[in-house]
Specification:
The chain is mainly alpha-helical and about 210 residues long. It has nine helices and no strands. It has helices at about 15-25, 30-40, 45-60, 70-80, 85-95, 100-110, 115-125, 140-150, 155-165. Helix 5 (about 85-95) runs antiparallel to helix 6 (about 100-110). The protein is elongated. Keywords: Cytoplasm.
Amino acid sequence: MAFARPKKREPVGEAGLFEYAVGTLARRMRTVRDLRRLMKARAEEGDAGERAMDAVIVRLKELNYLSDTRFAEDYTRVRKEHEKFGRRRVQQDLMMKGVGKELVASTLETAYEDVDEVALARQYIARKRMKKPSGENAQKETVRTMNRLMRAGFSSNAIFKVLKAWDLPEEALTGVEEGGVDSDSYAEPDERAGDSDGYARQNEDE
């Protein structure tokens, strides 16, 4: 039995795109790039669609409904104050969402200017209920803890200080040296399914 193909959505003009964009932004904030991506699926193809999206974005900015600056500030505040993420993790996430490099840099400079990174890392550990490595698997657990803190955006020096303060057995710290972890090269962000920031895990096609 053949299944009917879903009907292709009819493209909408500027007025329809504006109505859709306002509804989307009412559910949660978006960057300009993210909103344009969503509108593109509904806009006309070619120059007509591009002009309509441009007009909608200009109007939304004039009404103060759309602002990458406000998005970056709010997103950073949530990630730092509630999720307890380090600066480098928030930097990576903002850039993935399409926030410009210079805006990311200035936002993080302000938000993290007076932050004690070691204290923030300890708050992250407490929030995640991470336990001090112990027993015969202490070394393996130490490496796992180190990797989680790397993915959470903390620098090598902060991670080293946190681990040293735990007074772990010398063998558990083998290979973990101050300045020896490159936090800039961490891979996938830590436990995305468990980090509820109110932004990242809602349906992208809302």
